[in-house]
Amino acid sequence: MIKKDFMKEIENSLKIVKREVDKNIINGDISKAKEAINNQLKGLVGLDIMTIDTLSFSSIIDIISREDEFNGEKYIALGELLCLQGFVCQSTGDEEGEIRYYLKSIDALNEAFNEDSDIEKRYFQDGIHISDLLSTYDLTINENKKIFKFYEIVGKYDKAEDILFYMIKKSNKDKNIIAVGISYYERLKNLSDEMLECGNLSREEIEDSYKELMNIC
C-alpha cells in the first residue's frame, strides 16, 4: 500500500468513527462510543486503549516505530482517535480523562510532525481546538511545553507566545524556560514576514520579546 492510499484509508475510517461516536453519545451509549474508538485504534494503529493507558508515550513510540512504515500517518490516526476519546470523556463530565486524552492526542500530533514535517496541516485542526481548550486549564510546565510545541508546528505563533510567557511566570522565570523562549524567537526571526503575519506576530513584537528574555538572563 502506498502512503497516499493509507492516508485515504485513515481519513475514511476517521469520518466513519466520528459519526458513530457522535451518534452513540447522543443516544447515551458511551460504552459503544468507546468501543468504536478502540476498534479503530487496533485497526489503524495496532494498539488498544488499555495499552495506551498503561504505557508511557515513549514506549508507544517504540512500538509504532518497529514497523517503520507510514509512522507519520499512524500518529495522525492516533492523535485523532485520542482526541475522540477525550471528547467522550468531556461529554460525560470526566474532566481528568478529558485532559489526559487530549494531552496524549497532542503528543501524537507532535510526533506526526517529527516523523514527517510535510504532513498537511489540515490534519492538525482538531489539535488546535483541543490545545485552545487545554490552555484554559492549570497544567504543569511539561504539559504546557507540549501545547507550546504544537502551536509552533501549526503556525499559531501568538498562542505559542502566550503559553511561553505563562510558563515563564509559572516557573518563576526559570532559566531553562527562558532558554526555550530565546530559541523560539530565534527560529521566528528566520521566517518570512508573511508567515509571521499568518501567525499573528509581527517582527517588531518578536524583537521586543526576544530582547526582554535576553535581559532576564
Characterize the structure shown.
The chain has 217 residues and is an all-alpha fold. The chain has two domains: 3-134, no CATH class; 158-217, no CATH class. Helix content is 78%, strand content 0%. It has twelve helices and no strands. It has helices at 3-26, 30-45, 49-54, 57-65, 71-91, 95-115, 125-134, 141-153, 157-170, 175-189, 193-198, 203-216. Helix 1 packs antiparallel against helix 2, helix 5 (71-91) runs antiparallel to helix 6 (95-115) and helix 6 (95-115) crosses helix 8 (141-153). The longest helix has 24 residues, at 3-26. The protein is globular and about 55 Å long. InterPro entries: DUF6483. It comes from Clostridium paraputrificum. This is Tetratricopeptide repeat protein. Pfam families: DUF6483.
> Helix share of residues?
over 70%
Question: Rough shape?
Answer: globular
Question: For the terminal residues, how far apart are their CA atoms?
Answer: 52 Å
Determine the number of helices (DSSP H or I, runs of at least 4 residues).
12
Order of helices and strands: HHHHHHHHHHHH
The percent range for strand residues is: under 5%
Number of strands: 0
Low-confidence stretches: none
Query: Taking all residues together, what is the mean pLDDT?
Result: 96
**Main β sheet profile:** none
Radius of gyration: 18 Å
Number of domains: 2
